[in-house]
Design brief:
The complex is a heterodimer.
Chain A (H helix, E strand, L loop, with lengths): L5 H5 L4 E6 L5 H14 L4 E6 L4 H5 L11 E4 L2 E6 L1 H12 L3 H9 L1 H9 L3 H15 L12 E8 H18 L3 H14 L4 E8 L2 H18 L3 E9 L6 H13 L3 H34 L4 E5 L8 H25 L3
Chain B lengths: L4 H6 L2 E5 L6 H14 L3 E6 L4 H6 L10 E5 L6 E6 L5 H9 L3 H9 L1 H9 L3 H16 L4 E5 L8 H12 L2 H12 L2 H8 L1 H14 L1 H19 L1 H13 L3 E7 L3 H16 L4 E9 L12 H12 L3 H30 L5 E6 L8 H11 L3
Parallel strand pairs in B: 1-5, 1-6, 2-4, 2-5, 6-7, 7-8
Antiparallel strand pairs in B: 3-4
The chains are: A alpha/beta, B alpha/beta.
């Protein structure tokens, strides 16, 4: 029997967070995951938090208005979420008097309160996420989305989002917000429903942050962990000996033009070897310190980064995931 | 004017801004090192350096707040590295500004405060600029280099002081404090029906106790707020002064550059002096620089030198792949340069073949940051 890939198992949940340090390819990974899920027939919603609609652009569509899903494929939609908009939406649900609401939204006090009340925006954002994850379709018989994938903001900020329901629950105790928060805490902590995935590159700073974040999610927030995506891995197709050999030849070259060319080829060779070594070193550290199934995504040499490149990553992820499943099956589960 | 040499000579404060993950900390350290090497008493205020870079700068992480260690062997000047503690920024703010021990305790133990200090972004940025003002006033340094916090948006650093000042605005605080401490609900409702309505709803939603804590918090902190607006004003004055310059650190990726463009525009609106852009980890195409050098010729030469075989082929492939990166980086950087305001220097630092982690590594950036 074919083993279920780690991805298929991951996609059985309803809500996947994708978190990591800035600049490690988080949005790209979230897009690739969302595409993969939709290819597997999951009706998927990708939510981008506080983003500039980059996820939509990467998927090849114009971003829609905030809080409204935009179609980006046969069973794929993408949406930008923003805290104050989510709060307004929430208040519209609990305070159904339109005219009063408009006065409230327009008042300076309200605006300051929203800016000031710590964590309110984050809490509302998480609430909006669960609203989408729980939302029924028009028939009212099944959920609108099989899977909601959240492209969280950079590390520190994504932890703030995940921490918020718990903090709010403690602050607001028995009130309505307290009860709502408790519900969110329970949902986020349910390993059948939620998983927090991490994205990193195999370099010192991102790995430091990833290790720290992994520990915080595991020990402090106690949220279920999903997969670790390691992006932009260099794997030189040649070794030091051939580079050294070229270096020795270079010293003997007389022709100036040839010297220039060989020197440049040598530089690029060294660069690739250097990064391969760094990546190798930090992959090892991740393997030692982060106990999560890992998907390794190669560095993509491309002139520009767009939908085609995301698809290349989709393929890489699928390949890695099925390889991991085969290895898992071969080792058996004692 | 090429390079940053002129900037360093003319300015007393250099602020390195940019979105996360573009090598901001390393760039700030390299600039500071240059200052010290050219004989100036230099301090670099940094946030969360890579461990090996911290070691190179002579910093050890000591628990608590600011760590100041003076590095040896940076002659003829002096290099001090200072690391801000990101977690305790609000506590420090309170301890610094609230004189009475009893009030201090009341604030630190307030639930609302605890919640707020964990989650209200910007306190750290505010602490950074406050620290900057202090270093500036101390007169101990000729050059202050600031590595701004790794925010998602480069601009957060500039906007945080204003945001905090708005948050602590006396007018707003009055609304929070009044219902419980002076006027009571009735008065409030008479004064402003909207606010009264909102408060009643909020109270229903949150439970009374939470709002009492909120009010108490503002009441305890009210002394602190008096001084806030003038302070923030001074901060902005310093940031805009002739002594200060901004260096935007970026990388040649689409997303980073989009953000960088926005930053440039915004910085002008705020009248902050942006003077240079540093692109890190760049690649440049080699074959197009010289019109008659083609990829084919590169392959031929490598084969000729190394002999036919897998080695020559792979090194050539590798070269061609990097050329592709270089083409993309080049196009994006050119497009970015075209929208840069006049008088802003653009500098490209190539991708090195290792992480930069020692003083010697930082020096490797100097030929690019400070070309002869």
């Amino acid at each position: 029997m074919a083993a279920k890939t780690t991805l298929e198992k991951l996609f059985q949940r309803r809500l996947l967070f994708v978190a990591g340090k800035g600049g490690v390819g988080k949005t790209t990974t979230a897009c690739a995951l969302a595409l993969t899920a939709s290819h597997l027939g999951k009706r998927t919603l990708l939510m981008e938090l506080d983003g500039a609609g980059r996820a939509a652009y990467l998927l090849g569509v114009e971003p829609g208005p905030i809080g409204i899903p935009r179609r980006a494929g046969p069973s794929l939609s993408v949406m930008s979420v923003e805290g104050s908009a989510a709060l307004a939406e929430y208040l519209e649900i609990i305070l159904p008097v339109k005219r009063v609401l408009q006065a409230v939204f327009a008042s300076r006090i309200y605006q300051y309160f929203v800016a000031a009340a710590p964590g309110l925006k984050e809490l509302m954002t998480i609430g909006k996420i669960w609203y989408e994850a729980d939302r029924m379709d028009e028939s009212g018989e099944r959920r609108l989305w099989d899977l909601v994938i959240v492209d969280a903001p950079a590390t520190g900020h994504s932890l703030q989002y995940l921490r918020m329901p718990d903090a709010a629950q403690q602050t607001f105790g028995g009130g309505l917000v307290g009860r709502e928060s408790q519900r969110l805490v329970d949902l986020l902590a349910d390993p059948h429903l939620t998983a927090v995935n991490l994205v990193t590159t195999a370099e010192e700073m991102p790995v430091n942050e990833t290790v720290e974040m992994y520990q915080q999610i595991r020990d402090e927030l106690r949220l279920p962990l999903g997969m670790l995506f390691v992006n932009r891995l260099h794997r030189a197709a040649f070794d030091t000996s051939v580079v050294d050999q070229l270096d020795r030849k270079l010293r003997k070259l007389q022709n100036r033009r040839e010297r220039t060319i060989v020197a440049e080829v040598l530089n690029r060779g060294r660069e690739e070897l250097g990064w391969s070594r760094i990546n190798e070193l930090y992959l090892q550290r991740l393997a030692n310190e982060v106990d999560m199934p890992r998907i390794e995504v190669p560095f993509l040499f491309a002139e520009e980064f767009g939908l085609r490149e995301v698809h290349t990553i989709v393929t890489a992820i699928a390949r890695e995931a099925s390889a991991a499943a085969r290895v898992g099956a071969a080792h058996g589960r004692a | 004017m090429a390079g940053l040499e002129e900037l360093l000579r003319r300015h007393h404060i250099v602020i390195c801004a940019g979105s996360g993950g573009v090598g901001k900390t390393t760039t700030a350290a390299a600039i500071a090192l240059r200052g010290a090497l050219s004989g100036r008493r230099t301090v670099v205020m940094t946030i969360d350096p890579a461990k090996r870079l911290a070691n190179a700068l002579g910093m050890r992480t000591v628990g608590g707040s600011n760590t100041v260690v003076t590095g040896e062997g940076v002659k003829p000047g002096m290099l001090t590295a200072m690391m801000l503690d990101q977690k305790g920024a609000w506590d420090e703010l309170v301890e610094r500004h609230v004189a009475a021990a009893e009030t201090r305790e009341r604030i630190l133990n307030n639930h609302f405060y605890q919640h707020l200090s964990q989650s209200f972004a910007g306190s750290y940025e505010y602490m950074a600029v406050e620290q900057l003002c202090e270093l500036h006033a101390s007169g101990k340094y000729d050059l202050i280099v600031v590595d701004t916090p790794p925010t998602r948006h480069a601009l957060d650093f500039l906007e945080a002081p204003q945001r905090i000042a708005d948050f602590l605005d006396k007018q707003v605080i009055k609304w929070f404090v009044r219902p419980y401490f002076s006027a009571g609900w009735g008065t409030l409702q008479l004064m402003n029906r909207t606010v009264g309505f909102l408060f009643r709803r909020l109270e229903e939603a949150t439970g009374v106790s939470a709002l009492v804590e909120v009010s108490e918090f503002f009441a305890s902190m009210s002394g602190l707020f008096e001084a806030f607006h003038p302070r923030v004003k001074r901060v902005y004055e310093l940031l805009r002064s002739r002594d200060t310059c901004f260096v935007l650190v970026a990388s040649p990726e689409e997303q980073v550059l989009t953000e960088a463009e926005y930053f440039c525009r915004k910085v002008r609106e705020l009248a902050m002096p942006l003077r240079a852009v540093v692109f890190n980890r760049t690649h440049r195409e080699i074959t197009s620089a010289d019109d008659d050098l083609s990829g084919d010729e590169v392959g031929r030469v490598v084969r000729q030198v190394l002999g036919e075989g897998a080695g020559a082929e792979r090194l050539t492939d590798n070269f061609n792949r990097y050329e592709m990166l270089g083409r993309g980086d080049g196009l994006r950087m050119e497009a970015f340069r075209r929208v840069l305001p006049k008088g802003v220097t653009a500098i490209e630092v190539p991708n090195f073949d290792s992480d930069l982690h020692s003083l010697a590594d930082l020096r490797a950036m100097h030929p690019f940051l400070f070309p002869e």
